[in-house]
Amino acid sequence: MKCLQGQRFNIIFINSHFDLFFWCVLQYLFLFIGSLGFSILLPDEVQAIPINKLSPHQESGDVQKYSHHQELQQLSINSQILLEQKYAPEFSVIYPSTKPSFLIAAPENFNPGLKLPPPPKPKPKPKPKPKPKPKKSVDDGKKKAPTLVIESLTPNFNLSKDNFGQSNQFIEETAVFRLRNGNKLKFTTGFNSFEQSTVDMVTNIPLKFGWEGKINKTKLFVNGGLDLFNRLPIVPNLNIKAESPIFSKVRADGKLQSLLVGIGTVEYGAYKFNAETLDNQITFWRIRPSVYWQIDPNTSLFSLAQLGFFNDGNREFQSFSRLERKLGQFSVAVNLFTWSFQQDLAEDSGYFSPPDFIVYNAEIAWKQDIFKFLSCRLSATLGRQRLRGTWDNATNYQTSCTAKFSPGLELDMGYAFSNVRERDTGNELYKNESFTGQLRIKF
Known about the structure:
Largest sheet: 16 strands, antiparallel, barrel
Order of helices and strands: HHHEEEEEEEHEEEEHEEEEE
Oligomer: single chain
Number of helices: 5
Helix content: 10-25%
Strand order of the largest sheet: 1-2-3-4-5-6-7-8-9-10-11-12-13-14-15-16
Radius of gyration: 57 Å
Shape: elongated
């Protein structure tokens, strides 16, 4: 019986402890479920406040371990404080400036979705966009270049006379205008006179209009107009010329080393050889190809060929070549000139038309600045000429000076004497003198 009783007592004792354990577990569960439910019902922005932040009396930085009973009590206190904060009349959520102390029983530790995100950073105020500046047209602030401006005025004077009473005088002035696109317009007029002992004087007023432009690398010159005479019909005139570089070579310092230029000219007009030729109303067409070759900076070669067709049925062929070498202030050159006509019509038409005429000579020249504003050139040639199979000496002397009064004003003056024939004089000597002048005014 005592065993039974003792066994029964033990069973009852055991059952009492079991009941106590059971109720303790139930209390844990109810408290946990209640705390979790309140945390879920609260707004997301309310963060669980750690124990050491609840009140000054509850702060304990040294305590890091708690008993199970103290934890349950603390959970209950947390729930009450959260409820008070939810319904407090002046409620505000304060984000701590430092990381909050870790709370074991905080709901967000059991459900990560309840953790509050860090406060969003204030968005930077957008900078005001600068007002777009009004677009200026290309012409704003810039004056448009005039459509037409005068570039230069060039009066020319040439008087040539021989020892047989022939005199030709040319006084012409050329005005050059520059267009906005860089092309140029020219106008030439003047007063020319032709005198001869056997013919009445002929006067001439030329009217020429010209255009100068460039297409790619080719320069074009087009001139046309009318020749007015005192007692002769009006004769149109035309001159077309093209210049194009064939090749060029430039040195490392930027100076030109060598250059080859091709030139072509077509010309029509009254043949102004002398008064008798004009009186006979001789006109011509001429085709003249030529080439200029700068072999090096001090050596050059120029050569041309000319075909002429005259309204009296005659034809001509001319050729001229000149090789020149500069030696400081001096220069030397050799020249070769040929001229031949199909017919000799000097007596009928009045112009020099030899069947074969050849001149060759050597030239020496000197050029020097006499003063700062004045430079002069002297030259002399000595050679031979042949007319109708007869040879004789051919000499020529020239002098010219250029005076530069200002960058835009220059004056050329020249004189030349020659015995190279321009008419068939037989055994008589032929002499010709010429005076030239040119004034260049640049704007």
